[in-house]
Amino acid sequence: MTTSIKISKLSKGYKKEVVLNDLDWTINQGDIIGLLGKNGAGKSTLLSAILNIHPADSGSVTIFDQDNKALSNEVKARIAYVPQQNDEIPWLTIKELIAFKKQFYLQWNDEKVDELITRWEINTKKKMSELSVGQGQRVLIILALASNPDLMIFDEPAAALDPAGRRDFLREIVNLAVEENKTIIFSTHITSDLERVANKVAILHQGKICHFDDLDNIKENVVRIAVHSKSVRDVVVPNALNTQKSNSQISSVVTHLDKAWQQEMQAQGHQVEVNPMGLEDIFLEITA
Amino acid sequence: MNLIHVLTKGWLLRVFYLLTIGLGIAVSFTIKDKTNVSIACFIGGNFYLYLTLAYRILILSQNDFARTIPTYFDKLKRSLLVIILLSLLPSLILFPDHQLISSVIAWQCLLLITIVLGCFQPKAWFVLAALFVAPAFVADSIIKFSVDFLSYLNYSFPLLMAIVLVFLSRLERIRLSDKVKEQYLSFADQAMLGSFSDAEKKALKSPGKIQQWFNKNNLGVYKTMLKDNKPLKRHQLVEISCVGPSTIGRANWLTHISVIVLFCFMATYFSFSLETLERSYLMFVGVITGGFVGISSIAFLYTIIKRKNYLARLRMSPLFNDEKQFNQALLLTLFKSQITALLLALVNTLIVFIVVIPEHGNVFSNTIAVNALLFFLGSGLILLNFQTRWIHEYAVFFIVSIATFASVIVIDMSLNNQYELINSPFFVMTLLFSVALFTIGLITWQVIPLRWNKAV
Questions:
Q1: Is the model's pLDDT at B435 over the cut of 80?
Q2: CA atoms within 13 A on the CB side of B296
Q3: How many angstroms away from the CA of A197 is the closest CA of chain B?
Q4: Residue A95 · residue A48 · CB < 8 Å
Q5: Chain A within 8 Å of B89 (Cβ-Cβ)?
Q6: Low-confidence ranges of chain A (pLDDT < 50)
Q7: Does B97 lie at the interface with A, CB-CB under 8 angstroms?
């Protein structure tokens, strides 16, 4: 499997606050990754550090086997980035902006641009500064998709979109991933969006990617366990994130269900109840 | 849409540039004593071009997308080089000899470097201010050059050009700190919250009592009032909302008057020649005071346009019984801002006039006349723009910029010729027209309700 991005020991801080702390992460071609994290966890910092937009304090990042500090034009042409805040050239109209961006890319998809402009009812005569936040976000997404990149990084792309816009955007992502094997990373707070399109989930917590796995694996492994018995005082739950004990019951969320432990408990006469969790609950438990 | 087009986009910029350079060329072929006007036109046109370029370089080189687009910086640098070289070309037609051409080009390079530096690091604006003032000081008395300062400058032409090229070649390596970026954007009035938070931070971070007193602007004054539980008046509330680049506070008064007094002291002590004194008068009074009044109008207009939403919400507060009360408060704020700018301009003019060239009575009256004209024109256009919207803000910006620029040329011409502007029928007509515009603006402000519904 080809590696798209390899991050080693990446650290970044602002003043005295450490945001990313010796972060390691490898992303393969074709991955669609939903990046989850609390507000202020460093999602935007991580995404911009990957592209060297805001350089990291230490560590290294390679994109398509090139150091991110010295990316060739060929590699840059394979990357698209949509920032959380719209900072496109404010004095150009959308039409001019599209023409401006087009000149830098050999593979520019005019059909895609026209199709999305029409479908999303964007007035190309308006300037970027005159659009609503949602419309501006749509334009950024169009510009990103038009260059036909192999790697797309979206920083909270759907936050400002209405439900129809979100659905359209997610459909585009799925099409790209399925038909063209693109690598997509997007940060979001909307776990339902993530569940709809992502095949992998990464959770950023305390400066590190604390969980990175297939979506199905995460949902299968991270479960809530309840152990009922006359006395559970001596019972220890392996891989537990948190545990609540009473005299006759233990309630715990585990990162990985140990089947051998489950069988042993049952053999000892304990009743073990396993409850699957939604992604939102999993995220809340992991980052609690 | 190539990068040259992106960097120079805007009819305002293009028309202003073509007009000033065109005027310079026309003057160089028609008027005998042409060099001063040609230099003023050339520097004026290029100053506006470089100011726009500097802001756009900042946006284009510091945006997130700049790091991810292929061949972007190569094309940006090439385009900038082409524009800079093209902007220097008119000097070949405008000026008679190669020495003056290279001097003016060197001066332009210096101007460009400083403006761009000013955008990337706001403290560099002090250097720009010093650049404007420098010719007045170094021309004759302080440094006894046997040649004129401008002709001396031509030797530095290759060095300055090299600095421009080095700066260009390293453009992608320059990264602006978020703090400076925010400060700049708030100064350019892109974000209202930014400008408020900056003002807050500035006051809080001031280490000493003296600096705190010095930095006190509207916001600082009102913060103190709130701290002391003193009630705010209606117009004060509106004034806080209009804090921006047009706000003239204690720091502005002290800085400008100190520089003027320092200059006057030096002029008296070192006995500058009349030519130097006249040139200094043009620098200190013509450029600075015209700039105060003209730029203050434009800055105030932009501030209220950008904050229209905020002001529209503010008018709903229970402090204002009705719309009329709020409109009156806004009008008062506008006048206060404009009159403060005019007053500062007049104080500067008076000090320099009394100490430096008391015998040029016509220059003094002419300076006051053009500043008064700028005041009426600027205020009238603001009132009409904000009230009726029959004149677009770009047009206001354009008219006031041209008028400000023209006022400097008028002052320069009146230094060489003993004429009173007030005797010129053309000037009187223009002044009357401005007063009429101002009166109509005032009347419409009273009669037509402000269109806040469009702002919210």
A1: yes
A2: 29
A3: 25
A4: no
A5: no
A6: none
A7: no
Nearest to A117 by CA among A96, A94, A100, A101: A94
Residue of A nearest to B306 (CA): A129
CB burial of B25-57 (b: ≥16 within 10 Å; e: otherwise) equals bebbeeeeebbbbbbbbbbbbbbbbbbbbbbbb
A83 CB neighbours in chain B (<8 A) are 64-65
Given an 8 Å threshold on Cβ–Cβ distance, is B71 in contact with A73? yes
CA distance, residue A281 to nearest chain B CA (Å): 33
| Whole-structure pTM value | 0.72
Task: Outline where DSSP puts E strands in chain A.
Answer: 3-14, 17-28, 32-37, 58-63, 66-67, 79-82, 151-155, 183-187, 200-205, 208-214, 223-228, 240-245, 249-254, 271-276
ipTM of the complex: 0.81
Question: Which neighbouring-strand residues pair with B404?
Answer: none
Interchain contact, B69 vs A101, CB within 8 Å: yes
Test the A interface: residue of B60, B68, B179, B306 with most A CBs within 10 Å: B68
pLDDT at A78: 92
Residue among B388, B232, B245, B385 nearest B314 (CA) = B232
Q: For tokens 């040259």, name the residue.
A: B4
Q: How many CB atoms lie within 10 A of CB B419?
A: 12
CA angle centred on B226, ends B221 and B230, rounded to 5°? 95
Record the tokens describing residue B437, joined without a space: 């515009």
**Mean pLDDT, all residues of chain B:** 76
A87: which chain B residues are within 8 Å (Cβ-Cβ)? 63-65
